[in-house]
From TrEMBL:
Modified residues (2-(S-cysteinyl)pyruvic acid O-phosphothioketal): 119
Enzyme nomenclature, EC number: 2.5.1.7
UniProt cross-references to CDD domains, sorted A to Z: UdpNAET
Protein known as: UDP-N-acetylglucosamine 1-carboxyvinyltransferase
Species: Liquorilactobacillus cacaonum DSM 21116
NCBIfam families membership: murA, PRK09369.1
Protein encoded by which gene: murA
Biological process, per Gene Ontology: cell division; cell wall organization; peptidoglycan biosynthetic process; regulation of cell shape; UDP-N-acetylgalactosamine biosynthetic process
Keyword Transmembrane found: no
GO cellular component: cytoplasm
Catalytic residues identified in the record: 119
């Protein structure tokens, strides 16, 4: 198993490029299923394990997928006859593959996808996705670990989501593009990734308005076709580097970052005393020696993103006083705190809130990533701690961060990724072997 070893204490200084967003590219890859004609060409595709997984699902469904890692492009040709079934082997590896369900149903009138199940951060049901598709006339059944839906043709409907679920909004919006008539979808997710998906669907010939608001209007069309699209920048990767600057009292320019997408994070950073300024080339974040404590509550966009909760908690640990974080989106997203306690974090969990007593004198330890953002948070903690931190279970990190340790190293971090079997005990002498 590989691990990342961080020698903390360096201020991170410099500028950094951010990849295309994982959470935008995954549904956009799935949207290729809707194009009966032409090829969907994507640029700024992040080279992530999740992208390979989605490509594999699509290849299994008979989409021709060509990825060029060097140029970060993918071309998808779904003009052949498609299969309607995505088996467990593929779907179980990545929850987000459920977004093939709506497009398959719309295109073929039949979709059978293995139940995605939960993951470390929560149970993650898909009832809202299914309720929406049923309202459009799909007949949905669950059997033998699969969800299967059939329809003689989806029909536009008025649908109200009980919760603004990102995945349900994407699945229903994609299905509605080819439905007969008009779909009005209310209380939808407003994330920038939803807007990116709606933009690409419209370029493919769909008729969607209202993306980014609480109400979507989708006028069904007969057919969609290929197009070209550049994936929106990853606001969560950008946010993670903003926190890296703040956690190391550094100075980082996050190139081409879109402040509008990160308002809730920027507002919290400023409340903590961190300087955030918009420059021509991007967003500059300059840390402070005296971080102030803050309360954070995760909410659907434009509230504070749950995908930044583990990372900002590192700043709360370093802040001077009592902070709190309340997680309202996922029921089990505090696992990083148990690992952080090994690094001297002083945290008390009360229901869905974590009460954080700072400033913690963080020291290095061996810690295991429990999910994607926890992995990033533990590495950030290692940057701020004294001594050496070793982070294992990097498969989570690779789901969502491209070249994370290389990017941190380019900013001055002493960080190395090694094969665990190569390093048993870490001390300064051994680390010098790895040129940390
Ligand atoms: C690939 C992708 O884009 N992943 C993001 C997406 O996940 P995902 O699309 O899975 O997240 P949702 O917005 O659907 O889930 C939010 C909450 O709604 C609940 N729920 C959802 C659907 C449903 O049918 N029933 C139901 O109860 C979930 O269990 C969860 O508690 O949005 C999350 C919330 O911003 C982010 O953390 C994930 O990074
Ligand atoms: C929870 C996340 O992703 P996913 O929905 O793909 O698990 C995330 O990106 O932090």
């Amino acid at each position: 198993m590989e691990k990342i070893i961080v020698h903390g204490g360096q201020k991170l200084v410099g500028s950094i490029e951010i990849e295309g967003a994982k959470n935008a590219v995954l549904p956009i890859l799935a949207a290729s299923l809707l194009a009966k004609k032409g090829v969907l060409n994507l640029e700024s595709v992040p080279v992530l394990s999740d992208v390979y997984m989605m490509n594999n699902v699509l290849k299994f469904l008979n989409v021709k997928v060509e990825m060029d890692e060097k140029n970060k492009t993918v071309s998808l040709d779904a003009t052949s006859d498609l299969s309607y079934e995505a088996p467990f082997k593929y779907v179980s590896k990545m929850r987000a593959s459920i977004v093939v369900f709506g497009p398959l149903l719309a295109r073929l009138g039949h979709a059978k996808v293995a139940m995605p199940g939960g993951c470390a951060i929560g149970s993650r049901p898909i009832d809202l996705h299914l309720k929406g598709l049923e309202a459009m006339g799909a007949h949905v059944e669950q059997h033998d670990g699969y969800i299967e839906a059939t329809t003689d043709g989806l029909v536009g409907a008025d649908i109200y989501l009980d919760f603004p679920s990102v995945g349900a909004t994407e699945n229903i919006m994609m299905a509605a593009t080819l439905a007969k008539g008009i779909t009005i979808l209310e209380n939808v997710a407003r994330e920038p990734e939803i807007v990116d998906l709606a933009n690409v669907l419209n370029k493919m010939g769909a008729n969607i308005s209202g993306a980014g608001t609480e109400r979507l209007k989708i006028v069904g069309v007969k057919e969609l076709h290929g197009t070209e699209h550049t994936i929106v920048q990853d606001r969560i990767e950008a946010g993670t580097f903003m926190v890296a600057a703040a956690a190391t009292n550094g100075n980082i320019l996050i190139k081409h970052a879109i402040a509008e997408h990160n308002r809730p994070l920027i507002s919290k950073l400023e409340e903590m005393g961190v300087s955030v300024s918009e420059e021509e080339e991007g967003i500059r974040v300059i840390g402070t020696e005296n971080l102030k404590p803050v309360s954070v509550k995760t909410l659907p966009h434009p509230g504070f993103p749950t995908d930044m909760q583990p990372q900002i908690s590192i700043l709360q640990l370093l802040a001077n006083g009592e902070s709190s974080v309340t997680e309202t989106v996922f029921e089990n997203r505090f696992m990083h705190f148990e690992e952080l306690k090994r690094m001297n974090a002083n945290v008390r969990i009360e229901g869905n809130s974590a009460l954080i007593h700072g400033p913690a004198k963080m020291h290095g330890a061996e810690v295991a990533a429990t999910d994607l953002r926890a992995a990033a948070a533990l590495i950030l903690a290692g940057l701020a701690a004294t001594g050496y931190t070793q982070v294992t279970h990097l498969k989570y990190l690779d789901r969502g961060y491209y070249h994370f340790h290389q990017k941190l190293a380019s900013l001055g971090a002493e960080i190395k990724r090694v094969d665990e079997s190569d390093v048993v005990v870490v001390n300064k002498e051994q680390l010098s072997e790895y040129h940390i």
